[in-house]
Write a structure and sequence with these properties.
With 200 residues, the protein is mainly alpha-helical. It folds into two domains: 51 residues, Orthogonal Bundle (Arc Repressor Mutant, subunit A), CATH 1.10.10.60; 130 residues, Orthogonal Bundle (Tetracycline Repressor, domain 2). The protein has ten helices and no strands. The longest helix has 25 residues. It is elongated and about 60 Å long. The N terminus is likely disordered.
Length: 200
Amino acid sequence: MPTGVHLRDARQQLFDAAERVLLRDGPGALTSRAVTDEAGTAKGVLHRHFGEFDAFLTELVLDRAARLEAEASTLRESAGTGTVAGNLTAALTTLFGPVPVAIIPLITFRDGLRARLRQARPGGGIAVLSQATAAISAYLADERELGRIAADADIDSLTLSLVGGGHLLFADRDPGPPTTATVATYVTSVLADVVQRRPS
């Protein structure tokens, strides 16, 4: 990499390279050498900008998690429009896209990365799952306030079911992601009782 390349450009180049390795070869293949080879840079570039590899991975995860915040805003803005099941189906498909789903096992199996993420976002749990949980919980609360789901709906339980089940649907990458119809069927079954009931 030429001297003088802006830090943001180097960061983005390395993040994009890491994402390609992660999607193509899985979290086990994500090493500093693999990232710099993929980016076409010297290994020292990564260490010069980030220090340790876990510091690089922390910044990568936080960067990708921040992108999900925009999706969370889109979901909340959809409250009161379309159908609850339709909005959640679209949200799960985005929140559990290929990159977020690949990042979750990366966090799970790297103790150093998890520790750094806990320092960066105390109480945040596993990044990506935390974003999905917060987004869906807030959306469901909005829909309950609007009267589109039952007033006595247990938001925490619904959120847990949607996030946990949604992650399982998308976690197996070999046959490819589930179809929209499959996700919609799952979401509809989770919501069936609270959408149909209308207690006074």
